[in-house]
Amino acid sequence: MFNIPVLFLRKTILVRLLIMYLAVILPIILLGIYLYHWSYNNASQEISRNTSVQLTSYLDNLNREIQWMEIQQFDILQDNELQKMALTWSIMDNVERKSSMSYMVNRLTSIKNTSPYIKDIFIHIISIDKTISASNAVQDFDYAKYEYILTGIQGNERRLIKQEDTLNLSTSIMDRNNVEESIAVVQIELDNEKLKTALNTLNVYPNSGTFLISEEMGVILAAGMESTSIIQSYENAVNRSIDITNLIDVEDENYHIDKAYSEELGLFVVTYLPEEEVSRPLNKFSNWAIVFAVTSITALLIYAYSTYRLVHRPLLLLVEGFKRMEKGRLDTPIEHEKTDEFGFLYDRYNKMLIRLKMFIDRDYKHKMMMQKAELKQLQSQINPHFLYNSFFILNSLAKIEDTERLELFTKMLGEYFRFITRNGENDVLLVDEIKHARTYTEIQNLRFSRRITVQFDELPKEMERIKVPRLIVQPIIENAYEHSLEKKVDEGLLRVTFEIHDNEALIIVEDNGDTMSDEEIHQLAQRIANVDETQEMTGMINIHRRIVLTYGEESGLFLSRSSLNGLKVMVRIKLEKENSDV
């Protein structure tokens, strides 16, 4: 029934009453919500603090282990036996070779036993085409592993290199003669199971999990409640540069996230815990908060409905009445049976409609009479102007005693004045107005045919039945003769054309006179466009005013420079309005 805009609804009494209600009940609800979140955040922060300490300690221990392994790698590279084997293998006898091999195997085995995170140690010596390891002793050179490890060393500055599912530490001795070729590469392969066991000690809560991840190598290890979807969601968020702080959503379930980073290792250790494990102690409080919120919302709805029925709806009825009044509908009073304050307002509104309609009718009739009087006054101003010019032509023909042209002129003049005096109508058909203007042009042609050429197009049939104020075309043609063409010695040209479009009709009068500059044309156009009540209503200003009164502000005269180099006057008639509207 009522169509109230959203912006208006914000300012209604109903909304204000609801805001007052909320101002009372909302602080209580907000306090409960605050206490819940404060308890939850405290529990979450406590878990995060403890977990962060554990994660940082884990990374520090792992870094120390890897630092020790790297020290052992460099010690191996500095070993004289390794350098002897790599550089003088071809001149060593079998006994020396076997002794050196046995020495290196024993040394690798002793180093391997010093750390639980070492699964195996390899020395790749390309010059002797052999690979030595702590677990498999001497074996054929492993070209695939050598190339991968060497690429990892040369391609980046990471300390850890991931090969398939294993983590490796590696370093090499470069050939002095060829800096791009390595003499020997020492590789330490870490034990994933032992790393997972150490990682699993971080999972102190039920259903929690932990994983090691690198920005370059991706996920390295995972322990605890392994969930591929959680790890995948974390990786996707990191790839999209989303800042992950405490929570991550995975398959409509939230997980509490904590992480620590080691710059030395270039690794993150991330632990996740279902949010319900964090909020489990607060469930009872949460249930009571929900009951309180539902009760408050129910009370708000009852209060809102009562206010709408008793206050807002009667006000909307009054607002709709004023909207109808704004649209000019003054014949629709408010029908009601109320006896309260709103009934009093409705009765006063209905009385106001009656009085307003009476005042508008009286004012409208007064304005109509004033407009008709103004139209008659403007038309009466233009008739004497042509009469003066007609007497001038009669005088000229009488002086030269051209009786034949004088007879023709008087006949045309009779038709001209018969058009003016045949009835008292203010408006005529455009076909008659153009016929009258053509008669005037033929009259002038009797005088100026030797030096002025006239191109007067036929009026399109679509424009013939348009009603226009009397005498709007002939005075424009008269001005063209008087102010431009009469002063030309020869080759004067007057052109009258017509155009019709969907919503407007155009009558265009042009000449090739050169008496007006662009500045003068512009000033005359400004005078016509900005006509006021005190300005003298003669000539083209007269015509423009009458057309505007008849067809509206978008109609009238529009002046510009003609393509013939003279003045171009365009009469524009908008076709949306009928003459009866004026």
TrEMBL record:
EC number: 2.7.13.3
Annotated ranges, domain HAMP: 309-361
PROSITE patterns: HAMP
Broad EC category: transferase
Keyword Lyase: no
GO MF entry, a single one: protein histidine kinase activity
InterPro entries with a match to the protein in the record: Bact_2-comp_sensor_kinase, HAMP_dom, HATPase_C_sf, Sig_transdc_His_kin_internal
Gene3D superfamilies: 6.10.340.10, Histidine kinase-like ATPase, C-terminal domain (3.30.565.10)
Topology in membrane: Multi-pass membrane protein
Transmembrane regions listed in the UniProt entry: 12-36, 285-305
SMART domains: HAMP (SM00304)
Pfam families attached to this UniProt entry: HAMP (PF00672), His_kinase (PF06580)
Keywords on record: Cell membrane, Kinase, Membrane, Phosphoprotein, Transferase, Transmembrane, Transmembrane helix
Localization, UniProt: Cell membrane
Name of the protein in its database record: Two-component system sensor histidine kinase YesM
Source organism of the structure: Evansella vedderi
